[in-house]
């Protein structure tokens, strides 16, 4: 099996990280078992919402995933989230849980940085007014940078001696030095492509090493910024400033506390809520038949006012609470696309029964179909690969959204291990 994609959530205390994590790992969504074998205390299963293949073929009624959920063509695909705790300034000096925190991050393929965009918490997460949240973003990036740079500089002399003695390429030497951050040769190659004019490694000065480390960080830890507490009056100016300063980062405006509150009301049957949208219905908005169908309870005046406020200040103004969009932004950053392995390419069923699209895996856009087979089935000998309607798919053909994303793998009998 290939390595699972891991998305790490980072953020200082009181930024809304725990609330965001709760809304991404929502208990209401937990259906079916979990695909992941080991869940550490700081790991959780999140659900990435995608348009399910069942909707393409009008088979929403027959779609019953083994993992995650599918609600009328919207599918929640499980994805591994890492809750990184103990984030304090100067972590790279080993302060607090510093080194553990940084070590945990090496597993991550992408970071979601929860930033308190309201500026109502200081660097330590204590209540204040007028704090500049840009500092939190700079600080996290700097923390990672100092840590990687420090580890490299500590032994730079011996790295250069060995590099020269073994006549290695820049890529080979960096692979040995940076491989400890769960970085593949491919990733390190991408980083080096971003700094094309660095010359031979033994001639690098400190400024060049720093450029290489920054390039490595950008491919190893691509970061989505969750600009949380977006409905606070001070957030607007901070959000504009952050987007201006970080044009290369994906920014998503969020209100995780609103999301958690709406999901709680939905689970208590006070509202019908489509997560990821602005649509909230109460008994005031629906016909008696619909109220009976959804089993909605009437609201008291206080709750009615709160829901009105949420509609005005969050949902209608921003289009949603942003939380569902957060994982989608991370998946886009990693170019993940859903692929559906099926047994039967004519009716899309699995081994038995008439339920369709039981499985779904997330793979990087452009992955060859054979690599997808390896990820799903391990080391078996593939006799043939079929797409929709039995069309032949070549091993080197690549997957994309809606292209070669429904596959059936025919195995050579006895060809497995």
UniProtKB/TrEMBL annotation:
InterPro entries named in the record: Beta-grasp_dom_sf, G_OBG, GTP-bd, P-loop_NTPase, YGR210-like_G4
Residue stretches making up the OBG-type G domain: 5-274
Keyword S-adenosyl-L-methionine: no
Source taxon at top rank: Eukaryota
Keywords from the named record: Nucleotide-binding
Entry protein name: OBG-type G domain-containing protein
Protein source organism: [Candida] anglica
């Amino acid at each position: 099996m290939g390595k699972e994609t891991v998305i790490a959530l980072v953020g200082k205390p009181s930024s809304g990280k725990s609330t965001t994590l709760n809304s991404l790992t929502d208990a209401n969504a937990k259906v079916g078992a979990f695909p992941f074998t080991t869940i550490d205390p700081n790991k959780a299963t999140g659900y990435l919402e995608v348009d399910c293949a069942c909707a393409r073929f009008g088979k929403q009624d027959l779609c019953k995933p083994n993992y995650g959920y599918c609600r009328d063509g919207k599918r929640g695909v499980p994805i591994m989230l890492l809750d990184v705790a103990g984030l304090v300034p100067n972590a790279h000096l080993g302060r607090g849980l510093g080194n553990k925190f940084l070590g945990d991050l090496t597993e991550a393929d992408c970071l979601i940085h929860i930033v308190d965009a309201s500026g109502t918490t200081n660097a330590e997460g204590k209540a204040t007014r007028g704090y500049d949240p840009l500092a939190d973003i700079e600080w996290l990036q700097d923390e990672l940078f100092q840590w990687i740079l420090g580890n490299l500089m500590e032994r730079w002399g011996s790295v250069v001696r060995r590099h020269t003695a073994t006549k290695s390429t820049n890529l080979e030497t960096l692979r040995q030095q940076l491989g400890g951050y769960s970085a593949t040769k491919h990733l390190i190659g991408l980083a080096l492509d971003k700094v094309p004019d660095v010359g031979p490694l033994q001639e690098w000065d400190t400024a060049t090493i720093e450029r290489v480390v920054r390039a490595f960080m950008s491919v190893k830890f691509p970061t989505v910024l969750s600009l949380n507490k977006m409905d606070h009056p001070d957030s607007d100016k901070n959000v504009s400033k952050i987007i201006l300063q970080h044009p290369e980062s994906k920014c998503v405006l969020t209100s995780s506390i609103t999301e958690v509150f709406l999901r709680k009301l939905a689970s208590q049957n006070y509202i019908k809520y489509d997560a990821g949208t602005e649509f909230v219905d109460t008994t005031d908005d629906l016909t008696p038949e619909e109220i009976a169908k959804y089993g909605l309870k009437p609201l008291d005046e206080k709750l009615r006012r709160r829901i009105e406020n949420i509609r005005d200040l969050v949902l209608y103004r921003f289009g949603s609470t942003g939380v569902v969009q957060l994982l989608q932004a991370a998946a886009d950053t990693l170019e993940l696309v859903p692929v559906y392995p099926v047994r039967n390419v004519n009716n899309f069923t699995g081994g038995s029964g008439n339920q369709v699209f039981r499985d779904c895996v997330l793979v990087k856009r452009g992955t060859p179909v054979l690599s997808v087979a390896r990820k799903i089935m391990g080391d078996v000998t593939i006799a043939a690969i079929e797409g929709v309607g039995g069309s032949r798919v070549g091993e080197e053909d690549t997957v994309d959204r809606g292209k070669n994303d429904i596959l059936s793998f025919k195995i050579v009998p006895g060809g497995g291990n």
